């Protein structure tokens, strides 16, 4: 497999999404209100404006769906993150749950409706 470098979310409101991910990921973004990103050792999370995406390739976003991808982040303590997300008024989709395959996770949505999964190995 080729190295995976980043995932880019196209948004009508990059500033709002940037502020959300800054609070949720507890990381300073780079960039601006047209293109912003959060650097990570494995793959960056990028945010790019819908208008600029369309400028680069007119019509490319026609028929594009939203919310079909789940962004997953490993965390130390799912339950502590859940409590922090509640304090941030983040819309929770699935409260902390332990899956049969040994992962504990909490699901929530970003302001554009994308699903996010914070997960960690379940305590044995």
Care to describe what's here?
The protein is of the alpha/beta class and 124 residues long. Helix content is 23%, strand content 35%. It is built from three helices and eight strands. A four-stranded mixed sheet has the order 1-4-3-2. A four-stranded mixed sheet has the order 5-8-7-6, covered by helices on one side. A hairpin with a 5-residue loop joins strand 7 and strand 8. The longest helix is centred in the N-terminal third of the chain and has 12 residues. 17% of the residues are buried. The mean pLDDT is 93.
What key attributes describe this structure?
single chain, 124 residues, alpha/beta, four-stranded mixed β-sheet, 3 helices, 8 strands
Structure described in brief:
This protein is of the alpha/beta class.
The percent range for strand residues is: 35-45%
What fraction, in percent, of the residue positions are helical?
10-25%
Structural class, from secondary structure content?
A: alpha/beta
How is the biggest beta sheet arranged? 4 strands, mixed
Radius of gyration: 15 Å
**Ends distance:** 32 Å
Would you report the number of β strands?
Answer: 8
**Average pLDDT over all residues:** 93
How do the strands line up in the largest sheet?
1-4-3-2
Low-pLDDT parts are none
| Bulk shape | globular
Quaternary structure of the protein = single chain
């Amino acid at each position: 497999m080729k190295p995976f470098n980043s995932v880019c979310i196209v948004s009508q409101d990059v500033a709002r999404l940037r502020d959300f991910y800054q609070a949720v990921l507890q990381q300073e973004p780079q960039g601006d209100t047209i293109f912003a990103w959060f650097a990570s050792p494995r793959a960056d999370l990028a945010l790019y404006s819908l208008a600029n995406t369309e400028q680069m390739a007119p019509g490319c976003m026609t028929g594009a769906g939203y919310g079909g991808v789940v962004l997953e982040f490993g965390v130390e303590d799912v339950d502590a993150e859940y409590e922090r997300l509640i304090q941030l008024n983040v819309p929770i989709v699935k409260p902390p749950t332990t899956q049969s395959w040994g992962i504990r996770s909490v699901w929530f949505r970003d302001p554009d409706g994308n699903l996010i999964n914070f997960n960690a190995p379940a305590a044995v």
